[in-house]
Amino acid sequence: MTKKPSVLLVEDDTGLQSQLRWALEAYDVAVAGDRAAALAKFRDEQPPVVVLDLGLPPDPDGATEGLQCLKDILAIAPETKVIISSGNEERANAVEAIAQGAYDFYAKPVDIDVLNLIIQRALHVHTLEREHRVRTESSLASLSGLVTSDPGMLKVCRTVEKVAPTGVSVMLLGESGTGKDVIARAIHQLSPRASRAFVAINCAAIPENLLESELFGHEKGAFTGAIRQTVGKIETANRGTFFLDEIGDLPLSLQAKLLRFLQDRVIERVGGRQQIPVDVRIISATNKNIPDLIRDGRFREDLFYRLNEIRIDIPPLRDRAGDVVLLINYFISEFNRQLGRNIKGLAQDAIEAVLEYNWPGNVREVENRVKRAVIMAEGRLLTAADLDFLAATGGTVEEYDLRVARERSERSVIQRALLKEQGNISKAARLLGISRPTLYELMKHLNIKA
Ligand SMILES: Nc1ncnc2c1ncn2[C@@H]1O[C@H](COP(=O)(O)OP(=O)(O)OP(=O)(O)O)[C@@H](O)[C@H]1O
Ligand SMILES: [Mg+2]
Hints:
450 residues, alpha/beta, elongated, five-stranded parallel sheet
């Protein structure tokens, strides 16, 4: 016999409890009468669906306990489908609950058939979403160790798949920590050169006087200290891929030499006479604005065109709605594994903090903060303090600025809606109960990108 799907019923009316338990016999039903009991049961069972009465003690006539319970559940497992049950006069609360991430609501008195249908559908959606998550994660991971569900990033992935087999020179543009290294390696791995070397050089990290010999190699005696012949990085990458990171920092003298190599595909070691043919695929990356450098005479335009046969723009994390939470969950499970810990997710204050923050250090910053938090956390959920966000959320002066507070909470609700609807503006607008143009307007005002 297959296991019945589990459903948690949070309801303080004991009469209704037993009536519903009987009506929902198709499910493995756990029952709780207040928020504390609900959370304890939820942690134990992790049911995909929760039926939640908003009026729970000590506030049976209001909705504060129910809404808090909803928040807590979604903080533990955001994918949970929470179905709100409410009396007719509490409709505004039910709408509020939907805005906070509840899946659906139904009005009391209970119609068993309707409730059964809603639960069935919630279970179905939950299963589909899980399959979708597994599929996107595993397909992308098998490409490149890259986690994303953002449309802009997925486009980058498709471009990578298309250009990888071709051998054209690719230039990667993106802020620090956005994943330029990851993408460069993915291009190599998906190319026919995958079994050959991937050699990277960071043009900003090597002093100018050493860079030439690092790139092209040198003959014994070429300069003081050149006690033996040394093969350069380009030559080492023969038949593989050569990755020039921070290309914007390549000194002009070396830009000329690199250009010559790209035209003739032969190198000369420093102090050498011999012309050595080298076959490499070139990938370069920078977080600088190369057209600006060209205008200032600090970068050769002709070299730029050689390197930039195909250009890939990697969006910063603040423009990837939804990726922050996805990446956080990914890194939590990675570091759980690496560090032998068992963190379950984010606490509510952490969710708010991460959605508000604009991640100037991009994915690297997410990785670092989560790693620290997984090490430091004392509970099973990471708090804002674990993630080092305490300073930002403590009673700062702007806490009392109503406009700032309103914008902040608007931004957080909108981001959550976009997250839930995977960046689909129409659906997010519907979820938020506003029109599409209004949502666009708000997003523009709050500088949120879908
Ligand atoms: N989409 C992603 N999924 C999973 N991990 C990622 C993703 N993007 C980046 N990372 C990880 O984040 C860290 C930073 O990425 P990476 O080194 O590729 O950034 P970068 O753009 O090269 O940064 P910099 O400009 O500072 O060199 C790495 O540890 C990388 O593995
Ligand atoms: Mg890098």
